[in-house]
Amino acid sequence: MGRQDQGLSERILAAMADGVIVTDAGGRIVYVSGKAEELSGYRNEDLLGRAIEVLVPDPLRELHERHRGGYVQTPVERDMGSGLDIHLRRADGSHVPVDVALSPLHVEGELRVVALIRDVSAKRDAERRIRDQAALMDSAYDAIVVRTVEEGTIAFWNQGATELYGFTLEEALGTVSGELLQTVFPEPWPDVERRLVQNGRWEGELRHSRKDGLQVVTSSRWVVLRDQGGEGRLILEINRDITEQKRSQTRLEAVLEVAQSILAGHDADQVLDLIARRARELVRAALAAVALPQEDADWSTIRVAEGTNAAQIRGLQLAHDHSVIGRAVAHGEPVVVEDLASEPHASPELAEATAIGPALYVPLAVEDNYLGTVIVANPKGSRPFSQDEFTVVQLFSAAAAVALQYTKVRETLDRMRLLADRERIGRELHDGVIQTLFSVGMSLQSTAVLSHEDEVARRLQDNISTVDQVIRDLRNYIFELRPGILRDQGLEQALRRLADDFYRQTGVATAVDIVPEAAIRVAGKGTELLPVVSEALSNVRRHAKAETCRITLSSPGDAVVLEVEDDGMGFDPERVLGRGHGLRNFRERTQRLGAELDIDSAVGGGTTVRVTIPA
Questions:
Q1: Nearest to 43 by CA among 33, 57, 58
Q2: How many beta carbons lie within 10 A of that of residue 532, not counting itself?
Q3: Residues 6+ apart with CB under 8 A from 17
Q4: Which residues share a beta bridge with 236?
Q5: In terms of domains, do 313 and 229 share one?
Q6: Mean pLDDT of 270-276
Q7: Mean pLDDT throughout 450-465?
Q8: Which domain holds residue 543?
Q9: N or C: which terminus of the chain has fewer CB atoms within 10 Å of its end residue's CB?
């Protein structure tokens, strides 16, 4: 190499950002660049000819000599940053973290080893800060996720994310966050992306799925992390779990809705419908129902149902004896079932009708007053309900029970007031008006006997007949007031009581045939149905001259059909229908029900009054 080339080489080495030290095969230093002098704190003349171990920390010198001897035997290139923790000992005794790259060089047949030495103090400080920041983010309660802008793959996943979602760091790294967590956004993704690009940030509520399948709601904040050129490379996502907060809010909204329903004057059936719907929504169950206990019976009937297969279980009777619902009723405590089909004490009718798997049975009770049972369920094969979901339904049911109790008390007071009014009217009619009319009739009859004129006697007799008819009509009106008294007993019991009273007063044998499911489906319509039956029976009493009568309540298809049938003398519908207050009352009441009225009759063939109520 010429002198000019040698000078150029030295200038190149001096200009390099890394220090350069060259040793011979024995480890003696033969060249030191200016950058190496600056890095080590030694002058060139202080290092030339000395063993390279002068730059190695004291505890490692002997080990370094052995490694150096091995390297001379098989010299190979070693890249910088090969993962070794290397420190350079400076002239003042301090240590500097460095990366070292080695290259063997043969000069005139002799081995030289070229070492490129780079100060990595700043790099190590940055790594330490990153580790500290990572440790700090790991200690945060929030889930912190860093993902790439382009692919959305996860590059950082803190301990808070593992605790919230259940996925470990190893499971999460490299996956697409939206796919891993099955993210549900509050708005279309293009709108989220547009706001993120425009503002460099986005905030909103997200719904995520955990590893165990449970869903969580998070308050999420996103920030775009940009490189030195301003290009967005990463997205920092901080997710705070607000699941319980949202559940509490939803539960409060549900309770308030039930309370508003009560204040609006809704009846018990409407409140029960609302309870079932809200219970289902609170835990996103496939099915929810409310079963009510039957008076003097060891079973409950599903009064209302919402969701999958709801129509199949309305009216279903669930025995209490040795059953899941029986345990809930007997102990007043909720019962959790992981798989209803395999539960030995499950109600087989319910399991077969709905293919239910996990279920919750939560009593509706105020102190010791048991009102019913809320049932929420999911299909067979679904995950069991969590403790949080169990708690949500339990707390809601406690509030709903108070609301239901209030509704029942209010309805009882209304019925008592109505009962008092009806009994007062009936008593005044019977004790006052009827007795007066009876007295007038007796007086007219006496006058007719004393009269010696045939025309006067005939007219008096006509008036007596009119008074008798008025008395009979008033007694019928008093009888028609009875449904108000019977409503306290429920529709089925009220119909049977009505039939018994009719038999005692008329001697007409009256049978009652009721399908329980039909009675349950129209239980809330008893206010209109009972007067229809009462009026039909009054017509039988006044006109039919029947020996037997039958009251039938059935549910063919989706409708409920009420029939009052007698074997009396019947009539010609074309001549009679459309006249009289009774038929007008029939039509008005069925119209209020949204029902269809049919009256079938023939002279000598009896009469059937049929009311068809749509589902």
A1: 33
A2: 22
A3: 35, 118
A4: 146, 223
A5: no
A6: 82
A7: 66
A8: 490-615
A9: N
- The whole-angstrom separation of Cα 337 and Cα 236 is 41
Q: How many domains does the chain have?
A: 4
pLDDT at 218: 92
Q: CA-CA distance, 216 to 181, in Å (whole number)? A: 10
* CA 312 to chain CA centroid, nearest Å: 21
Q: Residue 150, exposed/middle/buried by CB under 10 A (0-12, 13-18, 19+)?
A: exposed
Per the DSSP assignment, residues forming a β-bridge with 119 are: 98
Q: What is the DSSP secondary-structure string of 370-424?
A: EEEEEEEEEETTSPPPPHHHHHHHHHHHHHHHHHHHHHHHHHHHHHHHHHHHHHH
What are 193's two structure tokens?
């992306």
**Residue 596 is part of a domain; what is its CATH number?**
3.30.565.10
Measured distance CA(358)–CA(355) in Å, rounded: 10
Q: Rounded to whole angstroms, what are the CA distances from 469 to 287, 441, 462, 464, 472?
A: 57, 11, 11, 9, 5
Same domain, 501 and 586: yes
Give the C-alpha distances (Å, rounded to integers) separating 141 from 131, 164, 202, 243, 483. 18, 9, 20, 14, 64
Tokens of 98: 């460095």
Across the range 152-171, mean pLDDT stands at 90
Q: What is the DSSP letter of 356?
A: E
pLDDT in tens, 115-129: 999 888 888 877 777
Distance of alpha carbon 440 from alpha carbon 459, whole angstroms: 15
Question: Can you give the pLDDT at residue 349?
Answer: 64
CATH of the domain at 171: 3.30.450.20
**Vertex 95 angle, CA 122 and 15, to 5°:** 60
- pLDDT tens for each residue of 468-498: 666 666 655 655 555 444 444 568 888 888 8
Using 50, 70 and 90 to split pLDDT, how confident is the model at 576? Answer: low
What tokens were used for 388? 């949080």
**Dihedral-angle region of residue 606 (phi above 0 means left; psi in -120 to 50 means alpha; beta otherwise):** left
pLDDT on residue 357: 84
Q: Is 108 exposed, middle or buried (0-12, 13-18, 19+ CB in 10 A)?
A: exposed
Who's near 613: CB < 8 A, 6+ residues apart? 522, 525, 559, 560, 561, 562, 593, 594, 595
Pairing state between β 335-337 and 110-119: unpaired
Q: Is 156 part of any domain?
A: yes
Q: Does residue 464 form part of some domain?
A: no
For residue 451, give the 3-state DSSP assignment. Answer: coil
